[in-house]
């Protein structure tokens, strides 16, 4: 059996009956538009005539359709499996060559209609990101396409348009005259194509229920079956901006946003909001905060006073809802900022958590505004009637640094954190702050699909982030791009999103990555060069039809991010070399200028796409934030130096930061420490010109084992001088150590260079990571043994975090031990390391940013050295307050995207085994570094790179 939708330039008609929901009819028109875009033929929409005809598409909603019952009876189809289900649809090819789309409810029917678009290769962003579907001559569905959809995993799934100025606001006023129903029609369509059903509208300067014009926004949302709600501080279907429109000394609502002094005015204000908008489908926000997202009673009020007042307010609001809207209406209380403290109370003050006044209310939880879970429901809490929601962020306007430009949310982290929320029982509402929505299409797709089908993308699928990116690339570009082009898009998306995860563009500074230590600035720049080169190369092969989509989804965010990164990397080098006096500082200043111009040009070109269709959407500031917001943000400082009037050369060992021009009085010595690693036989000495003219130099070296890449040369800017050591020929070792010297000589001085060598590693195990110069580093996935426990096991999370990957124990809701004597029962990872000297070492544990996941809890793990008694390692210091800008440790953690835990350990000379035990939820290890006491770990953005294994 097959159902022909389009063939030979003829299209099947869509059949609907009297009483069809308006929203279903509207979506049918949009799907007909999709068919026309794909095939060039637009299907007609006709009325049901009471009998089944061949080659038609029948669209029905159970409980609102005699047609579906008649078709089911004639075709022998069982519809009972849809009855009582939430948002499900049957997509059935019929015996007579027709197609039946039957929804269990209005949204189910709409999802069924858009399933046609999916099967035709139409992207959810066909309009919002201009993803043109590939043309097809015919559309035919076979029996294998027949299916019944599942109930969505999360009940309410959607996004919050927020922080909408200057980008989204300028765009919508320019194109739609404001936050109107015409604009929201595009937003609603995109949400439904993503199988969402829930929206928080823009609210900085707009009122959803007034700007349609009038109630047209709300009416249209209800027509489409979209459940509306308001943000955490907008109760009773009122919008933040509405209050300023109606308040006043002579207003019936009063002038003060204070329940203590204006109780009757606020009750009337809330009642009128409920009467106006309660006829539509909503989740009604309850509770109260101060004006403009502030404290309700001020800082001097006690916890008890705040809780008591909030109870009174909520009681009155729920009474109003019953009177004005109805019984059992969905209600939501956001436990955001200080309201969370009111919910939990403290040792002396009972909170709202034991109060029956919240029975049936969904409790909206929130991460720390930077995507890190906190205060998830305990097992005892999960029985709360009303369930739990999660307010997540891809965009944030607040301390320590706002992020509102292109996507900086990394799929592996989103997957890790949101699966944790789901596994902890947060399954009623998922809402994500997407800012302007533009440039968040990729992470939003994943967020929505994870919420819709957790069984497919959830915690049982460790490679879900990678699998999803491949799926997303194919969905958006597969109709036009060859496999090699799709692979390129995959790499570009992966690289730029990880780069922005490691440091959000707004937060990046000239010193985020050190200009010389570990060569990390050079490595970042090379990665950026590869990213930009691959993106430019791919752009040249993109079909014309897909150029706008490629620009919007890939090119602009990737190129803009790489350029913003380069700008700060050049600034770091400019500052560093200017202090040295090297002429190349001026070159880096010019490169900063070029990046600034490129940033402006990219924005200008984006705004010109499709005759300015998205003009305004790239206006968000994104470089050089010096405050939490964009006030006083600036491009990097540029320092220009005046070259010396005499010959001058500076030298520096690669990765070091000691430089000298070889003066007689300063007597600085350049030490090349790279050869302390027995595997290293070649390293670099860096030469920098400091004069107006080119300066000749020559090398003086007496050792036959030291081979400079050249013995003479001329430099005026930067030069890399390679130095080789003939390790196999050295005969004058001194207790496995050796030093050699040579000099770089020029007219202005003689630069002494000392080379330090270590011979070999006697007795070092084949898989051990060995110490060089008192330091070593191991990526978390490079354990030698992964011991499962009865309660769970560690798993490697590919591409997680700032460097290679992460390791985490599952089930992720499990606390594997509480007391030190229980540690050995937990899952364990063993790392093998080798050090030359016994003694005290600092073990630096780099873990994913983590907050206590339950109120009053902690985050910890276990550690054992060489089989000794394990220790419980607490990760959270006293006084730590997640989400509080005044907490310096939290602020540093979220900006750096890493938590650093330092543990003092005693190691023996030679082989050592380090055991890491799973502890609480939230512990996710990325890297281990060991530093011998007395040694200094150089500053860097990513830490010491992984050192070598003996056999690698």
Automatic annotation (TrEMBL):
It comes from the Bacteria. Gene3D superfamilies: 1.20.58.2150, 2.60.120.1620, Chitobiase/beta-hexosaminidase domain 2-like (3.30.379.10), Glycosyl hydrolase family 115 (3.20.20.520). GO terms for biological process: carbohydrate metabolic process. InterPro entries: GH115, GH115_C, GH115_sf, Hex-like_dom2. Pfam families: GH115_C, Glyco_hydro_115. Residues 769-946 form the Gylcosyl hydrolase 115 C-terminal domain. One of its GO terms (molecular function) is hydrolase activity. Keywords: Hydrolase. SUPFAM superfamilies: beta-N-acetylhexosaminidase-like domain. Transmembrane segments: none annotated. PANTHER family: GYLCOSYL HYDROLASE 115 C-TERMINAL DOMAIN-CONTAINING PROTEIN (PTHR37842:SF2), PTHR37842. This is Gylcosyl hydrolase 115 C-terminal domain-containing protein. It comes from Roseburia intestinalis.
């Amino acid at each position: 059996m097959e159902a022909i939708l389009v063939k030979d330039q003829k299209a099947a008609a869509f059949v609907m009956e009297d009483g069809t929901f308006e929203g279903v009819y509207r979506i049918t028109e949009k799907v007909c538009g999709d068919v026309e875009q794909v095939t060039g033929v637009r299907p007609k929409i006709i009325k049901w005539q009471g009998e089944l005809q061949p080659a038609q598409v029948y669209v029905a909603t159970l409980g609102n359709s005699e047609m579906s019952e008649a078709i089911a009876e004639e075709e022998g189809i069982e519809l009972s499996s849809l009855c009582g289900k939430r948002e499900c649809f049957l997509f059935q090819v019929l015996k007579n060559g027709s197609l039946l789309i039957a929804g269990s409810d209005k949204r189910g029917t709409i999802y069924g209609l858009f399933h046609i678009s999916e099967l035709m290769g139409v992207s959810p962003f066909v309009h919002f990101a201009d993803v043109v579907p590939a043309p097809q001559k015919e559309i035919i569905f076979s029996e294998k396409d027949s299916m019944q959809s599942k109930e969505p995993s999360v009940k309410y799934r959607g996004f919050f348009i927020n922080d909408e100025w200057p980008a989204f606001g300028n765009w919508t006023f320019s194109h739609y005259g404001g936050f109107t129903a015409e604009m929201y029609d595009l937003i609603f369509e995109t949400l439904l194509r993503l199988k969402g059903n829930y929206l928080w509208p823009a609210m900085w300067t707009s009122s959803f229920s007034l700007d349609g014009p009038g109630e047209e926004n709300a009416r249209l949302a209800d027509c489409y079956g979209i459940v509306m709600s308001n943000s955490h501080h907008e109760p009773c279907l009122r919008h933040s901006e509405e209050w300023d429109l109606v308040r006043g000394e002579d207003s019936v609502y009063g002038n003060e946003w204070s329940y203590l002094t204006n109780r009757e005015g606020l009750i009337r204000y809330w009642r009128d909001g409920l009467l106006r908008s309660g006829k539509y489908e909503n989740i009604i926000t309850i509770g109260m905060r101060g004006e403009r997202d502030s404290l309700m009673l001020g800082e001097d009020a006690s916890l008890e006073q705040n809780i008591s007042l909030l109870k009174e307010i909520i009681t009155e609001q729920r009474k109003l809802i019953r009177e004005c809207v109805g019984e059992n209406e969905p209600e939501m209380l956001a436990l955001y900022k200080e309201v969370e403290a009111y919910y939990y109370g403290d040792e002396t003050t009972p909170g709202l958590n034991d109060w029956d006044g919240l029975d049936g209310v969904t409790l909206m939880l929130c991460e720390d505004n930077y995507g890190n879970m906190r205060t998830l429901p305990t097992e005892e809490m999960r029985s709360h009637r009303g369930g739990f929601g999660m307010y997540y962020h891809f965009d944030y306007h607040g301390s320590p640094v706002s992020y509102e430009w292109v996507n900086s949310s990394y799929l592996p982290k989103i997957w890790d954190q949101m699966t944790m929320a789901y596994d902890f029982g947060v399954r009623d509402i998922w809402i994500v702050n997407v800012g302007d929505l533009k440039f968040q299409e990729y992470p939003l797709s994943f967020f929505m699909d994870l919420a819709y089908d957790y069984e497919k993308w959830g915690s049982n699928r460790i490679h879900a982030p990678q699998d999803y990116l491949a799926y997303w690339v194919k969905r958006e570009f597969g109709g036009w791009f060859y496999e090699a082009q799709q692979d390129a898009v995959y790499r570009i998306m992966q690289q730029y999103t990880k780069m922005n995860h490691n440091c959000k563009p707004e937060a990046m500074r000239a010193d985020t990555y050190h200009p010389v230590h570990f060569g990390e600035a050079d490595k970042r720049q090379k990665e950026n060069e590869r990213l930009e080169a691959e993106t430019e190369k791919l752009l040249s092969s993109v079909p014309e039809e897909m150029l706008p989509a490629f620009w919007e989804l890939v090119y602009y965010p990737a190129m803009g991010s790489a350029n913003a990164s380069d700008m700060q990397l050049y600034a770091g080098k400019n500052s560093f070399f200017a202090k040295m006096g090297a002429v190349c500082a001026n070159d880096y200043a010019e490169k900063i200028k070029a990046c600034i111009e490129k940033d402006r040009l990219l924005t200008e070109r984006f705004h010109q796409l499709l005759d300015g269709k998205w003009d305004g959407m790239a206006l968000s500031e994104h470089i050089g934030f010096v405050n939490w917001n964009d006030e006083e943000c600036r491009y990097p400082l540029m320092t220009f130096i005046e070259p010396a009037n005499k010959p001058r050369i500076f030298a520096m060992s690669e990765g070091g930061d000691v430089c000298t021009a070889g003066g007689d009085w300063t007597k600085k010595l350049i030490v090349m420490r790279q050869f302390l690693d027995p595997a290293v036989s070649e390293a670099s000495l860096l030469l920098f010109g400091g004069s107006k003219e080119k300066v000749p130099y020559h090398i003086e070296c007496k050792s036959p084992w030291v081979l400079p890449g050249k013995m003479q040369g001329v430099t005026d800017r930067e030069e890399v001088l390679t130095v080789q050591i003939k390790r196999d020929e050295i005969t004058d070792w001194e207790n496995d150590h050796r030093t050699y010297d040579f000099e770089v000589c020029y007219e202005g001085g003689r630069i002494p260079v000392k080379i330090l060598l270590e011979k070999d590693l006697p007795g070092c195990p084949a898989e051990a990571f060995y110490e060089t110069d008192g330091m070593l580093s191991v990526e978390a996935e490079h354990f030698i043994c992964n011991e499962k426990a009865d309660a769970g096991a560690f798993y490697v999370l590919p591409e997680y975090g700032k460097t290679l990957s992460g390791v985490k124990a599952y089930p992720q809701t499990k606390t594997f031990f509480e007391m030190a004597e229980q540690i050995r029962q937990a899952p364990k990872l063993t790392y093998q390391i080798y050090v030359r000297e016994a003694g005290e070492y600092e073990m630096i544990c780099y873990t994913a940013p983590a907050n206590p996941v339950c109120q009053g809890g902690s985050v910890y793990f276990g550690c054992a050295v060489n089989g000794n008694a394990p220790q419980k390692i607490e990760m959270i210091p006293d006084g730590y307050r997640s989400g509080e800008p005044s907490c310096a440790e939290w602020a540093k953690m979220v900006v750096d995207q890493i938590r650093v835990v330092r543990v003092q350990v005693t190691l023996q000379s030679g082989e050592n085994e380090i055991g890491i035990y799973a502890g609480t939820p939230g512990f996710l290890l990325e890297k281990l570094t060991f530093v011998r006491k007395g040694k200094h770990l150089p500053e860097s953005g990513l830490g010491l790179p992984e050192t070598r294994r003996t056999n690698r």
